[in-house]
Fold:
Amino acid sequence: MSIANQLSNELKQLKGFASSHAKVVTLDDADGNQLSIDFNAVDSMSCAFEELRLNIPSLDGSSIETIEDWAKELSNRVTYLLENIGPLEFDPTLKQGLVRSTPPDKSEDGTKFYEILLKATGNGSFTLKRYESETGTPGRTQVNLQMTHEQLLKLTEDLFETIP
Amino acid sequence: MARSIDRDLTRFKDIVRGKVRDNLRKYITHGEMMGRKGRQVVSIPVPNIEIPHFKHGQRGGGGVGQGEGEVGQPIGRGQDEGDGQGQAGSEPGSGHYREVELELEELAEMLADELELPRITPKGQDSLKSKKDKYTTISQNGPQSLRHFKRTYKNALKRLITSNEYCPDNPVIVPIRDDQMYRSWKTVHDPQANAAVIYMMDVSGSMTDDQKEIVRIEAFWIDTWLQSQYDGVQTRYVIHDAVAKEVDEDTFYHTRESGGTRISSAYDVARSIINREFPPNDWNIYCFQFSDGDNWGEDNNGCLKLLMDELLPHCNLFCYGQVESPYGSGDFIRELRRINDDFENLILSEIDSKNAIYDSIKTFLGKGR
Structure:
C-alpha cells in the first residue's frame, strides 16, 4: 500500500482527534523511507499538525547539488499551499538546504511562512514547519500547519515522487 | 579688515550648515547623499534660494504714466478666475535644490551635536606613538644633497670679513670645509589614538538588497563619526554566510551570497584579524555586526562562546544591529540579550527600517566608549 493510502486510512481513524499534545503518526514505505506527522487536530475534511518529517536513508552522504536540485523540484511542484515556496539558502559544509515561502505572508501584525529544511547528513531528511513572527518583536514562533486532507495527501505524494 | 566676499562666504556656509542641520535626520536615513569625491567630501542637496529680479516688459507695451486707467486702479494684469487643471502637488519640486559639498569632519560634528554623542575617550597611556623625521635643525655634517647653501655662504662671508680677506671690488667667496652647513632632522613622536573598526555583515540568501542598503548607510555614518574621533582609523570588512571571509569595502557592500547563516564563522575571522593586526592593548577596537538574526540553530552556542571569550574582552564596543528580513526578525538578538547584562560594551539594536538608522546610531555610539 502506498504511503498516501496509508495516510488516508490514518486520517480516517483520527477523525475527531484534538489535543495540545501531538499524536505522532509514523508510516514506512518499501524503500525504508519514514514519514512522521505530529497531529494536533483532525476532522472529516482538514487537519492541523506541528511538523512533517521524512527520513530518507538513501540521501545520506549525497552532494549539496542533489539537495539544491531537490529544493528546486519541490518548489516547482508544491504550488497549492498558502504561499509558494522557493529555495533560500544552502550550506555546502553541512549539506543542508533551506526552502521558505516566497514571498512570505505579510500583514500589519506580522509575517507567516513555511520553512523546509533539507539535509543530506545523518540520515537524509525533509522537515516542514510553519512560523510566524510578530512585527516589532524579534524571533519567531512555530505555529500549526493547517491543510485539507487532499492537500496533505498531495504533498505526501509529491514528496515521495521527488526524492532524489 | 575682512573682505566682503569672505563675509558672504561665511554667511553662505552658515546658511548651508543650518539647512543641513534641519534635515540631518532625513539625510542620515537616505543614502542619496553618499560621497562623490571618495570619502572626504559629501554632497548634500539643500533647497535653493531664488533671488527676485526685474524683468523687462515687451517692447511697445507703453511706459510709466502712459495708457488707459484711472488714479488708484491696480496696475498689471488681473488674476484669471476659474479652476485650472489638476491639483497642487505635495512634494517639493525637483528643480529647487542645489548640491553643496561638506567636509566629512564638519558633518561628523553636526551628527554628534544632533545625536548628542559624547566624545570618545581614547585608551589612556596605551595609545600608539608614531615616529616622524622632521628637517628642522642645522648640522655641520651631512650629505651634499642636504647642504644649506644660504647658511654655508653666510659662514664663508663672515669668515672672510673677520679675517679682512673680503674685497668688495672682487667679491669672490669660496666656502671651505668649516663653512659648510647641512640640513638635519629630528625624530619627533606623535601621540596617536588608534582605532580599528571591524564591520561584519551577513550576506546569506535571506539578506535582501534593502537590508544591505540599511547596513551601508549605517556603516557610513558610524565610519564618519569614528574618523572624526581618531587619527588613524583602520577599517576591516568581513562578510559571511555559512563561511566568513575578509573582503574589501566594495565587496562588502555589493556581495549577495545564497549560503546558510553561520555567524560564528564571522566571529572567528574577526578574532584572527584582531590577533594578527590589532593588539588590544594598543588599539581601540570597535566591532559592528549586522545580520537578520536568522542564524542556523545549533550555531548560537558557539557564537556566544566566541563572543564572550575572544571578542568582548578586547573591544571598546561590540555593536550588533539586527535588520528585519522579509521573514521578520531572527532569534539571534534574543540569544545576545541573555549575556547583555554581563558585558556593558555589548550594544544591541534592532533596525526594522531605514527610519530606525538614526536611533540605532545613537544607541551604538551614545556611550562614548
Observations:
- Residues 64-77 of chain A form the longest helix (14 residues).
- The domain at 49-162 of chain A is CATH 3.30.530 (Alpha-D-Glucose-1,6-Bisphosphate; Chain A, domain 4).
- Chain A touches chain B at residues 87-94, 96, 98, 100, 103-104, 106, 110-111, 113, 131-140 (CB under 8 Å).
